[in-house]
Amino acid sequence: MATLHEIKTKFNSNLTISNTGGNISNDCGLILVKEFMDSLDFTALSRKHLTIKDARLYHTHTNLSLMEQLIYQIIAGYTTDSAATLLKEDPAFKILFGKNRLASQPSLSRFWNRISKDNISQFQDLNQAMIDKVRLVRNTTEMIFDLDSTHSDTYGKQELSSYNAHYGTNGYHPLVAFDGLTGDFLKAELRPGSVYTSNGVGDFVAPLFKHYQQVVPDSNILVRGDSGFATPELYELCEAYSSFYVIRLKSNAILFKIAEKNIQVDDDTHWEKREVSYSSTLYQANSWSKARRICIKSTREAVELISRHEYIVTNYSNNVSAETVFQTYCKRGAMENFIKEAKSGFNLDKTDSSSFVENQARMMVSLLAYNIVNFMRTLCLPVKSAGMRVDTIRLRLFKIAGKVVQTGRRLLLKTSSSHVYQEHFFQLLQKIQQLHW
């Protein structure tokens, strides 16, 4: 009699499918992640920066081990804690931790319950320590703080969940910062859903400025943000730390009049062609302490009479043309891909817990998982492959079938001989092992 675990196929009645393959895993490629995290000394960094209060009298799995297991599950693409119910017996996962049995779903769920508010800032300290270590290898002093907010939907009565009019749904409204040059996830902060985009942005960005001023005094930092971040608090903060900024402004009647004065129309105007012009001037809003440079892009579509104006406030000098300022701002569009990758690939917007702090912790663990993969692909993959999305990396390098064979002296992980990307796999493994921190 056929069961859910033994089913005959219709296309070939002699073929039966069962899940009794035994000591086989389809996640053997996670060995690459383990090798990279070991090279990064992730476990030691975690012990240094993360201290979770634990009242358990007896336990098999430490809190740091539970966190690492969650990171591996996220990187492998398992979106729920309950995946651990089967993964705890997976041979590849057991090799990663050197254990005969991993933590089950209840153990992982209880881990979230032990997280406190202090641990949230510790997660950020751990993330910063990783970024600092990777920056030494990259040997660069340039950074771009790309600021944005996003939305995390909630589907129950989660603490501090509220309605956001812009997104038209209930949830949270996280504030995020990425490095526009590398894609590194610099920082994230979970906020109630009704909070405005720029609310608290000064307190959010100031620690980043302060840290990099101490660690890399000669660093060149540019801040980019959309019109939601057009606030004097952010301008003044950038100016205080001698950093440049390009931030979009919302249109108003005064800006429109200034832009219209720069439009030149004469008998030689070719109305049948699209025209784009750039200009800049000094402008001071009522809430600003001083006048600042604004750059204007005026676009008239073909056969149209009226131009559409866009505005950017910046502290770049006039030596940088208005067109260059707009080109610099437009590159911020890559951040939308970073956010999409973090949410769809690493469950950044997962809000399974009823507690706000626990949902913050889930977001931070997803942030760590995102950065580990981003570090690995930007440092170790060939330039032409460094832009691959995590879904592609999983398919080619992580989702590899294999089995574990233990002899008297050795532990062998035998991967599939027909793995199409096996050459890339071993090249990446060698590159990871050649890293010097």
Automatic annotation (TrEMBL):
InterPro entries per UniProt: RNaseH-like_sf, Tnp_DDE_dom, Transpos_IS1380
Highest taxon of the lineage: Bacteria
Domain Transposase DDE: 9-436
Listed name of the protein: IS1380 family transposase
